[in-house]
Amino acid sequence: MRASQLLAPTLRETPAEAEVISHQLLLRAGFIRKAAAGVYTYLPLAQRVLHKIMQIVREEMNRAGGQEITMPIIQPAELWLESGRWHVYGDELFRLKDRHGREFALGPTHEEIITDLVRNEVHSYKQLPLLLYQIANKYRDERRPRFGLMRGREFIMKDLYSFDKDEVGMQISYQKMFDAYTRIFTRLGLKFRPVEADAGAIGGSSTHEFMVLADAGEATIVYCDTCTYAANVEKAESRLIAREKQEAQPLEKIATPEQKTIDEVAAFLGIAPEQTIKTLIYHTEKGLVAAVLRGDRQVNEIKLQNLVDTLQLHLASDEEVVEKIGVAPGSIGPVGLKGKVWQVIADPEVVQQNNLVCGANEDGYHLKNVNYDRDYAVDLVADIRMVEAGEHCPRCEEGKLLTAKGIEVGQVFQLGTKYSKALNAVFLDENGKQKEMVMGCYGIGITRTMAAAIEQNHDENGIIWPLAIAPYHVVVIPVSEKDQQQREAAEKIYSQLTQLGIETVIDDRVERAGVKFKDADLIGYPYRLTVGKTLAEGKVELKERRTGNTRVLDVEEAAQVIANLVKEELARY
Amino acid sequence: MRASQLLAPTLRETPAEAEVISHQLLLRAGFIRKAAAGVYTYLPLAQRVLHKIMQIVREEMNRAGGQEITMPIIQPAELWLESGRWHVYGDELFRLKDRHGREFALGPTHEEIITDLVRNEVHSYKQLPLLLYQIANKYRDERRPRFGLMRGREFIMKDLYSFDKDEVGMQISYQKMFDAYTRIFTRLGLKFRPVEADAGAIGGSSTHEFMVLADAGEATIVYCDTCTYAANVEKAESRLIAREKQEAQPLEKIATPEQKTIDEVAAFLGIAPEQTIKTLIYHTEKGLVAAVLRGDRQVNEIKLQNLVDTLQLHLASDEEVVEKIGVAPGSIGPVGLKGKVWQVIADPEVVQQNNLVCGANEDGYHLKNVNYDRDYAVDLVADIRMVEAGEHCPRCEEGKLLTAKGIEVGQVFQLGTKYSKALNAVFLDENGKQKEMVMGCYGIGITRTMAAAIEQNHDENGIIWPLAIAPYHVVVIPVSEKDQQQREAAEKIYSQLTQLGIETVIDDRVERAGVKFKDADLIGYPYRLTVGKTLAEGKVELKERRTGNTRVLDVEEAAQVIANLVKEELARY
């Protein structure tokens, strides 16, 4: 490809609208342009990257037994009414009517459509397992679309749905997909980690998210420094180490005027926050829930909500707390609380510690030497806290937990019979008995993966594409357009590389060399070949984008050397 | 692929909803399923065919200098308001609102989006020509979607847009696309013909439609039996051969009671319909138009409307004719008509003939021996008729015109500056002068091409895929599933073919051989290899779907022979 013809409009300035690196660089390097909020046109360079990602995904889906199909983007409302999601989905669902007034949704996901298809076409256990997937646009009407391709309103996803005759079959399909995802992200050249994630209300015993590691990632990952344990922070657990019991001291009530927060109280009393008890009051549709944990810990609201199994769960307002418990949130403590709220739940860590300080349920006072069982009772002791770095691994003996930031690019999910039950997708088993199919769903955000690759692979000069998904492998730059020998040598190498199957751009624009170098770094070609003054001695210079390492090559051998380098690296996966 | 795992749900019965062959066979052979009216899911076999069509299209677009991009499906209304099409487009445009009430269209075409992109990114003649294309879903809310993939509401199109600095450049881009389309349909293995088509109100001096020839096609093509001239029937012209003048006879008025139609009048008078004059009255927003032509000819309303340049043109109602001309349509004739209607337009063929019969503009009477000029005058003599088979080619000396039926699968179109003017897409030329870009647009219906391929290639047993776009090249059928030797031999050949790069299905279902043969014909695999009783003598049978020819092969050589056949045929294009 000739840079003079390539539509890759690079920008010197960072557009003000772009908050995250991938969004900034995709705009600056001429990969995307905005058509509307959260809606983008993918320009030729992005198109090439997306094609490569899709091709790797497709190959691995096929290898795992997936069959590719394409389902409609415009989905009839009837199916969504049947599954019950038409009314539940809310404003995130783009809806439209046709000329006859019939309602449609722009698919954010395709469980309804695929389940409808399979219930009509599959009737026997002999046709199972069945793994169907598509790579297509998805729609989600985000309230505030931002971060470029990280959270768009129109985006490309791969979604596969597995149909099995029983739970065991589903586990096998799940493992196939888990392995396929591992191969995909490895082949893409990304540093990633599959982490255990919360399955939420849908149930299903297991779900994993595939996280591309990146400092600016919006998700926190907890992982073991010794074994393979990894989970997202909402799901992460730790192993509690039994503490030595101290002798219980007599309960005391002490005045703590104006001391509201844990830090204020600890400072006032000259103790560590971990010697205090934090009690938070949550509103749910079933009643108030008190979460009791150590003063220095954070509540994991997802764990808490799963435990109490409510539709809503959020911190109660000061007014509601005062009205229902008779004291302001800053003075709440677990002593005498049970029975006043719907449920009191304490974290295992806090109940094993002695002689703690907590709110006295009376404004301006705290209690000292509070001990579980002697001084307060709860409805349930269960893990309700956010795990922190440095805690013990829940799976192995030796490991300590570490944290990292990541971007979720894929998810594998055990759906069970949620949709097959709702849409009556049944089959006859070996004994002629009718059963519901057991389903799984498995997504990869294709456009999001492109953005995540940039979040993980960039520097102050631009993108650093992994070779497997780079839009082109090599850019050839003649330093002086006016120097006929340089131009001819560059053209010759360009033509040789192209013939050798190496995807090459020649920067034949009438621009200063500095502009070409800057664009090459910004766009992130893995290799840059410079044809400059040293050509007089028969030499050209190869620079690797990632390392910055340069290497002088004989002009006659350059194309072959580069082709070997590229092919060797591509063959690594 | 194993048939036991392939989701290809064949049907024995033809679904009642399917009127055309391609729709019937796509449903029966398990290629598509309906999700809503005009909205389909493409099952694995269709997906493979579509991939192959798209890949050939992509290769030829790239070869012609096209750069692939992807534009949004949801397009902001603002751009459509700017181009003026938001209000013009009518009910065929799917419209929706986002959560903030902003309006969007589901793109039926992408002139607005692409012109907006290019006006923002391209400013100099150095960046032109620019050829950008995408392969993506398109939306058209047809009033009555039918004929399956021939006229859907959601369908896949390739659309390329060319931007040039002047008319000459556009002609070059147009020719590149014309040539690319010719290569594409040749490579797809289809019988097709590019035909001249009417450019309509958009103007542009030239446009061609690419027609796949098929008896059930909805378009009529007129072509020369000698030279390359071909046009769709709306655009087709013919060369008029001068007739020998007869001596003009005196005008007579004759009673023709109850004789209304041309055929009735001709029979009543004992003359041929070609000796009569047909006069049709059209309603337009500018006034009535009288079309005068030989009694045996048909008006070409597109030619007529282009001549009078009106927004509307349709036959006037009887009431309007009586009210404005004072006589019923059956008695209208050109004598004395000029001045009573806005325009009288006569076809060149009718004005060169003498002594014709026409309505007397008086109920129950006709005129005999009517001669142009002596007896009647018109506002314009111009070609307003449908050309018919047997007429003379307008381009060559010798040729006679023939007609055929076709399906439009592609169009190349010179847009000129329609959109660049409306959206102000300008650039600076070599002299620093601002100019509007000159555009072209070029579409191929991908899903429609799949359907058209079936309309052209089928028999009473099912589809006959051209090899280049067949979902698989070969099906291997062990006749008896219970015969272990047959099963093993079939498996071995299947595995050999797959290793040789031949796309193969093995029909390993527990079904009678008859069912497998029927499905093989219905699905349309180009080659069927049967492993049956002759295996005992080391023989298997190869059958070619298209010709029905069979060939006995040694079991040991079968895979290699088939692979050679397939590769030879694929290499032909």
Question: Layout of helices and strands, plus pairs?
Answer:
Two copies of one chain form a homodimer.
Chain A: H1 21-28, E1 32-36, E2 39-42, H2 44-63, E3 67-68, E4 74-76, H3 77-83, H4 85-88, E5 95-97, E6 103-106, H5 111-121, E7 130-139, E8 154-164, H6 167-187, E9 192-196, E10 207-213, E11 219-224, E12 230-232, E13 252-255, H7 262-269, E14 277-284, E15 287-294, H8 301-308, E16 314-315, H9 318-325, E17 343-346, H10 348-351, E18 356-359, E19 365-370, E20 380-381, E21 401-416, H11 418-422, E22 426-428, E23 434-436, E24 438-445, H12 446-456, E25 458-459, E26 462-463, E27 474-478, H13 484-499, E28 504-506, H14 513-523, E29 527-531, E30 539-544, E31 550-554, H15 558-570
Parallel strand pairs in A: 3-7, 15-17, 17-20, 27-28, 27-29
Antiparallel strand pairs in A: 1-2, 4-6, 5-6, 7-8, 8-24, 9-10, 10-21, 11-12, 11-21, 13-19, 14-15, 14-16, 18-19, 21-24, 22-23, 25-26, 29-30, 30-31
Largest sheet of chain A: 9 strands, mixed
- State the oligomer: homodimer
How many strand units of chain A? 31
SSE class of chain A: alpha+beta
Query: What gross morphology of chain A would you assign?
Result: globular
Tell me the number of helical segments of chain A per DSSP (H or I, 4 or more residues long): 15
Low-confidence stretches of chain A: none
Q: What is the C-level CATH assignment of the largest domain in chain A?
A: Alpha Beta
Q: What CATH architecture of the largest domain in chain A do you see?
A: 2-Layer Sandwich
Share in helix of chain A: 25-40%
Q: Would you give the CATH topology of the largest domain in chain A? A: BirA Bifunctional Protein, domain 2
* Euclidean distance between termini CA atoms of chain A: 26 Å
Global mean pLDDT of chain A: 94
Looking at this structure, what is the CATH superfamily of the largest domain in chain A? Bira Bifunctional Protein, Domain 2
Q: How many domains of chain A?
A: 3
CA gyration radius of chain A, whole angstroms: 29 Å
Strand content of chain A: 25-35%
